[in-house]
Amino acid sequence: MGLMERNSTPHLLEADGIQLTLGGRVLLSDVYLRVTTGQVVGLLGRNGCGKSTLLQAVFGTQRVADASVRVDGRRVVPAYRQPGLLSYLPQVPLLPAHLTATGAARLLGVDVEQALAAFPELLEQRHRPVGELSGGTARLLEVLLLLHTNTAFSLLDEPFTGVMPVHIDALAQVIRDLKQRKGILLTDHRYAEVLALCDVVYLLHDGRLECLPDPLSGLRDRGYLK
Ligand SMILES: Nc1ncnc2c1ncn2[C@@H]1O[C@H](COP(=O)(O)OP(=O)(O)OP(=O)(O)O)[C@@H](O)[C@H]1O
């Protein structure tokens, strides 16, 4: 039984003291990150600054010595092993080309009609292999399925990439609706969409993670936005 079935009380996901050197470069050195259920949290930073690596460190597929990832104060490393805790959407395509949306949803324990309800044209294609969908449509499908998994938290690496603007708006609304029952940590370079959607915004810079109290002016002051 997953965290979400046990009770409807809020949960807290924390990553703390994540230090990582890759290829001789200190990538993550001073990281504290928290996400609660009911929140959408954004993670921003330049290309190559380590956002994907940080998501993988939280999920547990990137091994980090002495990583402290906690749920409700209890250490869970690797976190992916904890049933009902995390779903993770990597930056690269996730679903095998031969799988249909219906088949993928079944594997993930997701109700496909519910997951795709806001996108009728995608729902109509639920019996087609993913490999026959356009790149942006396949990405949208992956994001929707991962969001609808029965986990307390979802980690999404670039959910908006390749998705057309009108669908990004609808997807943002799905995320807003779903945060009633889960916490969502996402990274994306679509800053306007991220700022409009997120309750909390972190900036990763030179290995340090900074929570921006006023994201718009914080990003402008640091030269990330004009
Ligand atoms: N196994 C590895 N060995 C050495 N360097 C690595 C390894 N994996 C990733 N890197 C490097 O770590 C850095 C961070 O990569 P990462 O994908 O986490 O960045 P990112 O912030 O998600 O970037 P983007 O916004 O471009 O997706 C990059 O410079 C990358 O080349």
Automatic annotation (TrEMBL):
One of its GO terms (biological process) is L-amino acid transport. InterPro entries: ABC_transporter-like_ATP-bd, BCAA_Transport_ATP-bd_LivF, P-loop_NTPase. This is ATP-binding cassette domain-containing protein. SUPFAM superfamilies: P-loop containing nucleoside triphosphate hydrolases. It comes from the Bacteria. Keywords: Amino-acid transport, ATP-binding, Nucleotide-binding, Transport. Pfam families: ABC_tran (PF00005). Residues 13-225 form the ABC transporter domain. It comes from Hymenobacter rubripertinctus. Belongs to the ABC transporter superfamily. GO terms for molecular function: ATP binding; ATP hydrolysis activity; branched-chain amino acid transmembrane transporter activity. The keyword Transport applies.
